[in-house]
């Protein structure tokens, strides 16, 4: 640990906090439908889509549109991947990935997970990267934000039946938020030395006289959206640890900021739209408290050697799997940022984190990605936890629990329970299946607690739509270093794919249904007898509720995985 | 708290015996399945028992681990005890109402109705619209309205109040309850109840807890608890393959112990007891809530509509002073006032006589004088006496003015001044005249009950607004509102205005509670979220409200609100406590299970043994201690569940902070201490 490391964390938090109300205000304008600079483009888009922008949908209509829309994009992406051999922009003559890997990958990008069982440079053509994966990076992010907008309206409105028009929310989010920010961001990244070309891979002779192939591609345009949209799918296998994908300390900082910028700003947008920015700040603070604690634990854990390292004769911090350009401080910060948000881009090897250092990213994801979380999905997921916290503690002030003046009844609790507990359930079941059956065994690379942690991490990451990995877990074997002759591990691909689908859409539908129920409610004016949800006490309560409800489920698993790994002095 | 509140000991021996029997009877799986949390415990107990039995007979079931039989037996025993303790909590709560129900039942069974035409009909066959006559000494056969006559009725069976009450046709005291007894005179009653749904029937069902439907909050909490149970079930089931991968075999008994420790058994066991006890607390305050929903709603109330008379002020105005007109002495005025009030049996009239005594005027015998009393009528709005050739009158200011003018006299300008001044001060003026001369004015004062201001301050801090409802004019109402400290008032109230006020508050999202007794209160009682009807009131009012106050004490609304809040707080506090307990239970059980996992060659403990921060003796004693704590915490919390958590009226923020500290933080810490203590006994004394 050193001052620079802590300073960087401090500056990051300060900049993020300063940015939140600014971007939050802007997002409010986008969601509220104010006339903005591309109004003609907007009008044409609506005409092409055949939608009346003034006609809003109830939650069921909204949900139906999201599902149909997503199904179409899933089919399209799967087809692109399965036919990639005949597409243009394929200088390396790559063939199509197998059906199981294509399914896993298509679902992965559809659900904003960007779990990658493959290595980008040896599997994906430039066409697949640009027309398939990059498009999905935008689409999945925009869908998440659109749903968040609808959910916020549900909380904000009184005695209303409708919560917005999906097409309008989707169009405006893409047009006014994602595209402009990504164009600016990509230009900045190119200026910082990220590559952006369609060239064949370049062979070079290294200083020591060895031969090396340098992969090329349209990287900068993909790098910015993968962070801004909390997608995380790397152009290259090593993601943001590759200099072509993350060139300088400055790009590293900006890319980290890009991950949390929108999820953080959405808390403020929420506050503004429900009529009290303090409500937004309370949620932000709860997220920030968790985040700062997470960074601190990773940084402390990584800065010292573990019992096992000492037994192996190592001392000092853990530099295994870390890029010397970034060092322990920046890598720790990145690991926390990418896992509190459901991003999954990495600038260091997660698998090489110490036991405790690796437990934190796992725990971050296990909250259901609600600490900032994915763009949109983080906020609506957290709102479900807010309702849960309000319900648990609200009874203790002697009134029927209420949030923003709306009473929480059996229907809301049923939906909240589904939205918050379904994902932990599938993580546990799939992890147990994968660890306990012969079908899961081929994917596990290591033995002992680390082998279990790989499996746990894989299903935690996929079901929570994060996408980062303990890289030992395998779903795709590449015997020759190319994808020729490679085969997918069907069990891992299919189970992972299903967990991503359910992990994305079950909480999303629950949140939309909650929004529909909340929208119709009457609002009781606040008084001294109502529990306030914009105070420090509530922040503590919210953090406690997330910890208790989300993490209690995983305590045994965490003990047998990363914590045993962190406490042992043996090597496995 | 009223005098009728009696705290019985929680484990009253008279109740405990039958409750234990009930607790065992409730082990029937068909009953248990209604409570998913405790049902899981019962299934777990059964499975563990089977495992133990197989071990005991020497052929352990495959895959159930290699626990010693005594360990499996101990786990099974405590799991069964957990279930029984849970059932006992519910049975105890129910048992408190059962004795009362028995008395009520005895009362109901034996009545025969005598119809108006003299024929007889069994009471249970009466239908709405039947008309019966009830003579002195007979029991009233069913709920109804007096349509003819007046009688004194003994209602002690339902109210516990031994003094007889008057029931008469017309007006606001016309409702009679089946099973009560007419003491004198004869009344004709029109029956209003359907067979089998009389007030007493409903009361029996209520105190027995039979008609208890789950309230929305209970349903919501039930969903959450069931979901937590399901997820912990999955945690425990999936732990088996995960532990196998780590080379650790977990026995069935241990897994079930872990499951039961983790699922929210504490609140699951006490949930229904809390609800029943809440109703019981109201019953002991002589309030009958006709649904649990109403009890909870009373905790949510934002606005209390309180009738001025009887709630905020003592029922009657009192004469406070005499204000003579110029040329009249106070003595003269007092004397005339007294004479005019001698036949006035109203409390106001009597208070005038009392006040006059202070002027040395003895109560005079009118016998021997030629006196003729003039009663009060709504038309004349005055009363008085004609005695010895003088005509004395007292009444409303303008009525006396008119009368004096008709008698040919004039009214001094000071009269108007005095009348207005008293009105402004919140009093009620009564003018007194002798023949054509105005003698002066009597100042009648509303007497505000003691401690009302503190009560209202308390309510305000709880976030509840109080609105005084009165028929008085604006001036008087404003003055009394200010003196008593209510937040707002509705003057010149009519039933329609009252209804409109309730609707308006509800439109703004507020929950409204009110009390009422008259038939014209019925629409407002029905509209209010919590409508407390006075037992003395009309049948219509009693049907419209969702609670009936047997004491007919309007101040009780405030207590009802407190009981409602206490009920919700108790439920929330025990839920929080129950879930927070899991942290310590994990720290007890998991290091015990995984103590040897990943142990280096030649060592007996692995890395996870470091998490045994409580220093529990052995893995087996740790698991047994956790499961014992889990079981005995239920009976330990029964008194709290039945009594309700301590509730000090205060704002939500303070309440939340306090309860989070006590039940959240306490819930984290308590089991660490408890499990450690139990382990000291189990391990060190008993050698487990």
TrEMBL record, chain A:
Principal location class: membrane
Topology class, membrane: Multi-pass membrane protein
UniProtKB keywords: Cell membrane, Ion transport, Membrane, Potassium, Potassium transport, Transmembrane, Transmembrane helix, Transport
Record note on quaternary structure: The system is composed of three essential subunits: KdpA, KdpB and KdpC.
Encoding gene per record: kdpA
Similarity remark: Belongs to the KdpA family.
TM stretches of this protein: 6-27, 62-81, 134-155, 175-195, 250-269, 281-301, 370-395, 415-435, 501-519, 539-564
Localization per Swiss-Prot or TrEMBL: Cell membrane
Name of the protein in its database record: Potassium-transporting ATPase potassium-binding subunit
InterPro entries: KdpA
Pfam family of the protein (one): KdpA
Described function: Part of the high-affinity ATP-driven potassium transport (or Kdp) system, which catalyzes the hydrolysis of ATP coupled with the electrogenic transport of potassium into the cytoplasm. This subunit binds the extracellular potassium ions and delivers the ions to the membrane domain of KdpB through an intramembrane tunnel.
Domain of life assignment: Bacteria
PANTHER family assigned to the protein according to its UniProt record, in alphabetical order: POTASSIUM-TRANSPORTING ATPASE A CHAIN (PTHR30607), POTASSIUM-TRANSPORTING ATPASE POTASSIUM-BINDING SUBUNIT (PTHR30607:SF2)
From TrEMBL, chain B:
Residues holding Mg(2+): 517, 521
Matches recorded under Gene3D superfamilies: Calcium-transporting ATPase, cytoplasmic domain N (3.40.1110.10), Calcium-transporting ATPase, cytoplasmic transduction domain A (2.70.150.10), HAD superfamily/HAD-like (3.40.50.1000)
Regions that span the bilayer: 36-57, 69-89, 219-243, 255-277, 583-601, 621-640, 660-678
Protein localization: Cell membrane
InterPro entries in the cross-refs: ATPase_P-typ_cyto_dom_N, ATPase_P-typ_P_site, ATPase_P-typ_TM_dom_sf, ATPase_P-typ_transduc_dom_A_sf, ATPase_P-type_domA, HAD-like_sf, HAD_sf, P-type_ATPase_bsu_IA
Residue ranges of domain P-type ATPase A in the record: 119-208
Keywords for this protein: ATP-binding, Cell membrane, Ion transport, Magnesium, Membrane, Metal-binding, Nucleotide-binding, Phosphoprotein, Potassium, Potassium transport, Translocase, Transmembrane, Transmembrane helix, Transport
Topological type in the membrane: Multi-pass membrane protein
EC number: 7.2.2.6
Protein family: Belongs to the cation transport ATPase (P-type) (TC 3.A.3) family. Type IA subfamily.
Quaternary organization: The system is composed of three essential subunits: KdpA, KdpB and KdpC.
Protein name: Potassium-transporting ATPase ATP-binding subunit
Gene: kdpB
